[in-house]
Amino acid sequence: MAVRRGLADLPEDALVLVACSGGADSLALASAARFAGRRTGLVTVDHGLQEGSDRRARSVAAWARDAGFDPVRIETVSVAGLSGGPEAAARTARYDALTAAAAELGAAAVLLGHTRDDQAETVLLALARGAGPRGLSGMPSRRGIFRRPMLDVARADTRKACAALGLAPWEDPHNTDPAYARSRVRASVLPVLVDALGAGVLGNLARTAALVAADNAALDELSAAALVSARSEEGLSVPVLAGMSPAIRGRVLHRWARELGAAGGALAYGHVTALDALVTDWHGQGAVHLPAGIAVERRSDDLVRVVPGHIS
Question: What is the pTM of this model?
Fold first, then answer.
């Protein structure tokens, strides 16, 4: 039912790809997608990070072909040279491969098997990092070509579905490796919360993410319009920015910094706070230095981008 709802807006003949690792969540998702009667293909990504990962990928692909998925693809990726830790690098490589496969095959959507438990873990990790509303909104149900139709489905239910279908899920050793923060949350933190607060805590965390995401969407619309109103010939108008509520002004400054070329993953709370101080706590301070070598300073009643070496 969750998968049918997640695909209801697509044409009946649209190709849908399922990203499948062979784990319980993605196997259950793949089976549900096939049951929904859609034209369904499957892509499994071999990151090459574990011994035998190529055999695992071939096994998933063989199962998919036997089950009637078409097309079936194995995408082999390398994380060498990618920024971030092992998890971040693998995620970047995986999403790049899935995006490329979808474009080549003409797929209308790529389904990801994240569950309610994954969403709860994401919210807890965001809280631990001190993330703002964007982090607390968790994983979006949709972003571009990617869709997560099982964010309301418990992880335990995907295992039950696999058992009922006679499927033997692959157990990713990374999911129990204490070297990874998400694995520690999964193995140690969530069980304690469930024991102390009841099983409903997982659904409540996921529901919180959905509520915050809806607020974020509304604030993003307001901040996009506010950015237009704040533009000046030089950059951004300080008086216009000063008249905005802090929540909107922070988003405007974040959006503008992204426009200037600062990557979202590198743009931190401290950067936006420093930009905000040029508006609300101006006492002649120097330029604010953003990621990618970008510098912004206040000149009279404007925030302007400056070239390093030409800073006032």
Answer: 0.86
Report yes or no: 279 and 272 within 8 Å, Cβ to Cβ: no
Rounded to whole angstroms, how far apart are CA atoms 100 and 122?
26
* 132 appears as a binding residue in the annotation: no
126 labelled ligand-binding:
no
Q: Please, are residues 97 and 74 in contact by the beta-carbon 8 Å criterion? A: no
What are the tens digits of pLDDT across the range 215-245? 999 999 999 999 999 999 999 999 999 999 9
Q: Please report where in the chains the tokens 């969530």 appear, as a residue.
A: 190
> Nearest to residue 52, comparing CAs of 137, 168, 173?
173
**Is 23 annotated as contributing to ligand binding?**
yes
Closest to 279 in 3D by CA, of 223, 222, 237: 237
Mean of the per-residue pLDDT values for the chain?
A: 90
Q: Which residue intervals of 40-189 are DSSP H helices?
A: 53-67, 86-105, 116-129, 133-136, 155-165, 181-184
Alpha-carbon distance of 5 to 293, in angstroms, equals 44
Q: Enumerate domains of the chain plus CATH numbers.
A: 2-206 (3.40.50.620), 231-306 (3.30.465)
22 marked among binding-site residues:
yes
